[in-house]
């Protein structure tokens, strides 16, 4: 579903959306004539076609590293490279995929407001703005570490939230997450898929995200757009997420449909998000507009999608201040996630913060980070061989595999459900004596597997 009257002259967003469909293919340009590489597509988001060759010479790679990496990666074009390729730590950030999941919680106050809101349509404005808010953080161009099977991440001391995520499967790589406070519960099963395209990769968010607002028991379902990572090897890496985001109130049938504009020549349309909140009869009630890297606003609208007379755009969310010249483009909240300020009293030994490769990279020691990453991967293989030799399978500790399978735009997904044991564990740990150590235990994701 798109915006009403989208192709007519009078629609609120008609002039904003009419010219963007051509940009996805028009921007790409092969630069193999200059560089000697077959099928390399480079896109400068701030320029046009004529800038592709100059752009290809930029980026974080040294010439010799870029050449060898390209030779290694060519054979994977068209493949899902989520976990099948060993990647150099030079492209990593000191964070794991399990830690990126709670970045959704930076602006959790929007879900608190959604829970307190009595207007069913404004409730969706708050909740969908929460879903959009994480894209500022997701534009980082560094790759997070793949979690080890059984790895976890815990977070407390933010908005009254208790958060736990766990790597529940290695092949295919799957994560599950749960968060809750007095206003909402959040549950997610994630199975990212990728398609490597040479100098870019498409990331398909195969997953199910559900938010339950506690006051009325309203259940919200989120389907995000895919993400495109451009200029992986040649040029400056950048991220775009073109397409529709749909959040549906499964209790009432109301929904919000937001369109993320694709980036065009010279940055046209980049970051822009427009759409509507619809009632169960698919009639527009509220228009929404903004940029996912700045702010979102809303305004009541009529049946044609036009702003109601006597109303005005109101801001619902804006990006918080961020650190200046941060090496990894981290927000203040990302630094908080990586710190021990957000750990519970007794941290699980499987927590991502304790990974020696992640810690070494955070300290700027790339050589040690690479060695530690290799060591962890070898230990994971050895643990799997030992487990299989005994005829044992892996059982997650905090999430249970259900019989439920759901369909997504990018494939079917097996659902893991939070089993509640973590809250029991926390209740016992929080009543015990002692303080949180700077580094309480060594990383051990296999202790409970």
Neighbour order of strands in the largest sheet: 5-6-7-8-11-12-15-16-17-18-19-20
Please give the number of β-strands.
22
Helix content: 10-25%
Q: What global shape is seen?
A: globular
N→C terminal distance: 43 Å
Gyration radius (Cα, Å) is: 23 Å
Q: Which residues form runs of ≥5 with pLDDT under 50?
A: 2-27
How would you state the average pLDDT, rounded?
87
The main sheet comes to:
12 strands, antiparallel
Structural class: alpha+beta
| Share of β-strand residues | 25-35%
- Report the total helices: 13
Describe the structure.
24% of the residues lie in helices and 27% in strands. It is an alpha+beta fold. The strands form five sheets. It has a twelve-stranded antiparallel sheet with strand order 5-6-7-8-11-12-15-16-17-18-19-20. A hairpin with a 2-residue loop joins strand 21 (399-408) and strand 22 (411-418). Helix 7 runs antiparallel to helix 8. It is globular.
